[in-house]
């Protein structure tokens, strides 16, 4: 499972940080940070979801009010949003 975080879209509501600890609050920027991710385009951060953290990643994606977080299965199919 893979997660993509569009940091440009993020408005810093920080619901995601309560759901999955890979998302961290950057209160100075008013944005979340996705730990251990790689930037794959301007403000687009990507990483694999470790085994056992899939539900947390999905809840984080569902919690985002502006759909800044997308989750894909291993076949590349988008699960959320
Ligand atoms: S829930 Fe969405 S808008 Fe809020 S901090 Fe997380 S990614 Fe940003």
Indicate the topology.
Blueprint: E1 2-6, H1 15-19, E2 23-26, E3 31-34, E4 38-39, E5 44-48, H2 54-63, E6 69-72, E7 78-80
Antiparallel strand pairs: 1-5, 1-6, 2-3, 4-5, 6-7
Model description:
- This protein is of the alpha+beta class and 81 residues long.
- 19% of the residues lie in helices and 33% in strands.
- The chain has helices at 15-19, 54-63, and strands spanning 2-6, 23-26, 31-34, 38-39, 44-48, 69-72, 78-80.
- The strands form two sheets. It has a five-stranded antiparallel sheet, covered by helices on one side.
- Strand 4 and strand 5 form a beta hairpin.
- It is globular, with a radius of gyration of 11 Å.
- The protein starts with a strand and ends with a strand.
- The mean pLDDT is 97.
- Iron/sulfur cluster (SF4) binds at residues 10-16, 23, 32, 63-64, 66, 68-69.
Are any ligands bound, and if so which? Answer: iron/sulfur cluster
Helix content: 10-25%
Strand elements, count: 7
- In CATH, what is the class? Alpha Beta
What is the string of helix and strand elements?
EHEEEEHEE
Strands side by side in the biggest sheet:
4-5-1-6-7
C-alpha Rg, in Å? Answer: 11 Å
